[in-house]
Amino acid sequence: MPNPALSIVEDAPRAARVVADLLENVIRSRPDAVLALPTGRTPLRLYDELAERNRVGRIDFHRVRTFNLDEWVGANRDSAGSYARFMDEHFFSRVNLQPRNCQIPDGSRSDLGAECARYERLIREAGGIDLAILGIGRNGHIGFNEPGTPFDSRTHVVEVTAETRLANRWSFPDGRVPTRAMTVGIGTILDARQIVLLATGGAKANVLRCLLEDPIDPSFPASALRLHPCVHLVADSLAAARLAQPAADSGRSPR
Ligand code: PGA
User: Fold this and answer.
1) How far is CA 236 from the centre of its chain?
2) Has 228 been annotated as catalytic?
3) At a CB cut-off of 8 Å and minimum separation 6, what does 3 contact?
4) Dist. CA 32 → ligand 1 center (Å)
5) 76 band by pLDDT with thresholds 50, 70 and 90
6) What is the pTM of this model?
């Protein structure tokens, strides 16, 4: 990875605080910053931390603009398991973001191709993404860009792998996980001026090792991040357990 910044911290709450610090700095230097935001279990603590910083007046989201990375096809704000609902519940309703500044692909549209093009255009019209915050799937996906996705891809519809559907079953009370999703592309992500990848827990240890050591190839989507000049990987000690020299060369944070 060119100039990788790597923060390995003791546990998941500390990792959330490191990412919140990075985000706070971006918003301080640009109050109308454009963020790309993830869903999943990993960012839950981050959203708690950001809500608390907003509550005490430390981060002002009033002018911030957000674009979520992905959404399930067929989902709308009211569907159980939709990412729109997830974001309302875990973040948007808890901070002073303006609803009109919060974008999520609309998975309920009949013309999904047009929706993908519209989403990509909205990002462009916002001036591009200042900071993309990512999680990582166990198969190396970022957003819903599953293995094999071209690195120059833009917002598109994907068939979600069985493994990823299984990993997301927790958010669908009836256990019926959609088979398709919309996601910003890897090219869309690589256009962000700054990228932070947050990984916590032992289930991510193997994929982080692959991220730093495996060849850069579309069969492992997150490897595209190694082509970006400004990526910061924030991991807790469990996720970092298989990295070759976590302490020696990492710029390890003492937090
Ligand atoms: P998780 O999902 O945070 O629930 O592990 C991450 C991802 O699939 O990007």
Assistant:
1) 16
2) no
3) 229, 230
4) 27
5) confident
6) 0.94
